[in-house]
Design goal:
Blueprint lengths: L4 E4 L6 E5 L3 H5 L1 H8 L6 E8 L12 H7 L4 E6 L14 E8 L3 H9 L4 E8 L4 H10 L10 H5 L3 E5 L6 E5 L5 H15 L3
Antiparallel strand pairs: 1-2, 2-8, 3-5, 3-6, 4-5, 6-7, 7-8
């Protein structure tokens, strides 16, 4: 039987850690929030770093992710400059950046990452702030501390962060006006998963 544990951050409102030993439950967190809060008409921005994609050419990398994002999303693979060194393998050279994707793609992307050797940030936001959210997402390959920053969270309805260092959890962040609705959505999901 699957379980989903939602733990709020007592020091910072609007922050939760969602834990489960079932990858499907964690992957479904984004979609549960989108459906509960009726955010289907919003936009999704994403940053992804998967270590299985690092030995590919940038034009071929992240093909599965780009397929899940759909044809209307603006996605690109950013190749960080790396000095040529003998016997050196760079494990974070290629990053996927996406904006203007449908929010329903969030759980499908999370399904590719939960339990794997990758990192993922999903930000569901109003289409009017796509440029601001996209600008912050575009900086993540260079400064990963921005994924927990107030700038990204403040411009979004909610942000979901998956870190390969903790494969049984996702972090959910929401700005103050969205904190109670997001908490309600997480509570509903936890009740639903308890019946699996």
């Amino acid at each position: 039987m699957a379980q989903l544990q939602v733990t709020p951050d007592l020091l910072t409102p609007g922050r939760w850690t969602v834990r489960s030993d079932h990858p499907g439950a964690l992957a479904g967190v984004s979609d549960a929030i989108v459906q509960t809060l009726n955010l289907q008409n919003e936009a999704l921005a994403a940053w992804a770093l998967h270590y299985d994609e690092q030995d590919m050419h940038s034009e071929d990398a992240y093909a599965r992710e780009r397929q899940e994002l759909g044809i209307h999303a603006q996605s690109l693979v950013v190749a960080l400059p790396t000095p040529a060194r003998a016997h050196t393998v760079y494990i974070d050279r290629l990053h996927l950046l996406a904006q203007a994707a449908p929010p329903a793609a969030g759980s499908r992307l999370a399904g590719l990452y939960v339990g794997s050797a990758g990192d993922l940030v999903l930000a569901v936001h109003h289409p009017s702030v796509t440029m601001q959210v996209g600008g912050t997402i575009a900086q993540l390959p260079h400064d990963r501390t921005l994924r927990d920053g107030q700038r990204l969270v403040g411009d979004s309805r909610f942000v979901l962060v998956y870190d390969r260092e903790d494969p049984t959890a996702v972090q959910v962040r929401a700005p103050q006006p969205m904190a109670m609705p997001v908490q309600d959505a997480l509570g509903r999901l936890a009740g639903l998963v308890a019946g699996w």
